[in-house]
Amino acid sequence: MSSSLSVYLLDVAATRALVGSGDEELLRVICTEFGDDLARDDDYHSLAIEQGAPTAEEALRAVVHGGPFSEQREHAFQYGYAYKRLCALTGLFLPNDCFTPHRGDWLSVVDQGLKALGITAVSVEAFSLGDPPAPLPHCFTPGCGEWTPDRIAQALEQFEATKRAVDESGQAPPLEPEVVEGVMQCIGWMTRAEARPGFGVIGFRS
Questions:
Q1: Residue 10 in contact with residue 90, Cβ under 8 Å?
Q2: How far apart are CA 62 and CA 136, in angstroms?
Q3: Shortest CA distance to 150 belongs to which of 181, 190, 179, 116?
Q4: In the prediction, which pLDDT does 55 show?
Q5: Phi, psi values for residue 105, rounded to 5°
Q6: Structure confidence by residue, pLDDT tens digits, 53-100
Q7: Where are the domains of the chain?
Q8: Which part of the chain is the DUF7691 domain (predicted)?
Q9: Residue 46: in which H helix or E strand, if any?
């Protein structure tokens, strides 16, 4: 079974602030924008909804209003997907062909490639293991994580330091071509974020 990443360039703080904002206009816009998508998801998750899970629109309303949330942990996925829709509406989707689809431990493999280049401030696997902002409940799928502007700045500084060391020594870390491609896609995401003050990256694994 394969997984995928959805990665967005956006103002991380402003996006987190949407949770619990009570913004009814935002709720109307997103329900209109994603109307067909909400209906498809309700159809796909119909059994869970019959068992008490919120519909996609109900989950969106709970996220925008900061609750109430189902006490059943198995229903938490709906709030994760609702937050993903907020990011899709307000952010810019970033190319992620190196990660969609992916299998097994590919995210950790790319993380090892980042570390080989001295980049430890960010992690691709964080998009799988992180949590959405409070008070949203934790869910395994979709996984959610973020790279804040300060983390991105630190990671790019680490990359530049490694490039200087390679220029001086003439020796680059031995990495498989596909890992280099994945790492460079991550560098591309961060470079785009750095060009916009306050912007970072929020990613979802599903």
A1: yes
A2: 9
A3: 190
A4: 98
A5: -100, 30
A6: 999 999 999 999 999 999 999 999 999 999 999 999 999 999 999 999
A7: 5-205
A8: 1-205
A9: helix 46-50
